[in-house]
Amino acid sequence: MENPGKIAKLSVEELSFDQSSQIVSIPFTVNEVSTIYGFETQLTYDVNLMEFKGIDWADNLQGYVKTVNNINGSIQIAAAGAKANLENGSFGTFNFELKQGWEDAELSVSVDRLRWNEGEEMKSVANIEISPVTTGLVSEISIPKEFALEQNFPNPFNPSTTLRFALPSSSQVRLTVLNTLGQTVATLVNQPMNAGNHVVQFNASNLSSGMYFYRIDAGNYTKTMKMMLVK
C-alpha cells in the first residue's frame, strides 16, 4: 500500500453552460496529491432537475478501468489503473442536462464520499452549489467563514435525523453521539474532512427513547448540542 503523504483535495474550477443544449459542465481538479492508482467516489443530485450525461475524464485517467453506476440520482464510481500523476491537475468533467423548471430551483451536486488509492474514506466531501445568472452559471464549493454545528432536524426524531456542520478549513473531525451519562453510543465521523458544509445522517433505531447529545471536535473547535429520540 502506497501512502501519498497528503490528503488529496478535490476542487471545482469555473463551470461552463451551453444554453442551446442546457448542459452544465463541472470540471473537477485534484490538489495536494502526486500519485493516484485508484479511487472510489459517490455524487448525488436532484433527478427532478438534472440528468447525468457522462464524464470527460482527464488524459491521465483515460486508461483506467472504470465502473460508473447512476441510480436514482446517485453516481457511484470506482476506478483503478497504472499510477497517474495528477498533482494540481485535471480529474474529469461531469456533465448534466438541466431539466424544465431549473431556473427557479436551487441546484447542487454533492460529493458524498471519496477514497484515494487504499486510503481512508472521506465522507460529506463537498456541496457544489449552482446558481443561474444572466450570463450563464456560476458555481463554487461553499466555504463557510467559521466552524459551526447546527441543530439536528427533525427534532424530536424517530428513528433518523440529519446533522449539519461547517468547516472553514480542512480538519480532523470527530462527531459522536452520547447518552445522558456521557457515554459514547455512536461515532458518526472520525476522519479528516475538507472545508465546506457537511451533512451526516444519524439512525437511532438501536437506541431507546430519551435525550441524547451530539458533539463535534474539529481542530480547536468543540460544541455539544441536545436532541430528543421519541419512539
Textual characterization of the structure:
The chain is mainly beta. The chain folds into 2 domains: 9-141, Immunoglobulin-like (Sandwich); 148-229, Sandwich (Immunoglobulin-like), CATH 2.60.40.1930. The chain contains no helices and 18 strands. The chain has strands spanning 9-12, 16-18, 23-31, 35-45, 50-57, 65-71, 74-85, 89-98, 107-116, 122-133, 136-141, 148-149, 160-167, 171-178, 184-193, 196-203, 210-218, 221-229. The strands form 4 sheets. It has a 6-stranded antiparallel beta sheet with strand order 6-7-4-9-10-11, with no helix packed on it.
Q: Which CATH C-level class of the largest domain is it? A: Mainly Beta
In what order do the strands lie side by side in the largest sheet?
A: 6-7-4-9-10-11
Q: Please work out how many helical segments DSSP would assign.
A: 0
Name the helix and strand elements from N-terminus to C-terminus, one letter apiece: EEEEEEEEEEEEEEEEEE
Q: Largest sheet, if any?
A: 6 strands, antiparallel
Described by the principal axes of the CA atoms, the overall outline is globular
> How helix-rich are the residues, as a percent range?
under 10%
CATH fold-level assignment of the largest domain: Immunoglobulin-like
Please report the distance between the alpha carbons of the first and last residues.
Answer: 45 Å
Counting helices, strands and paired strands, the structural category is mainly beta
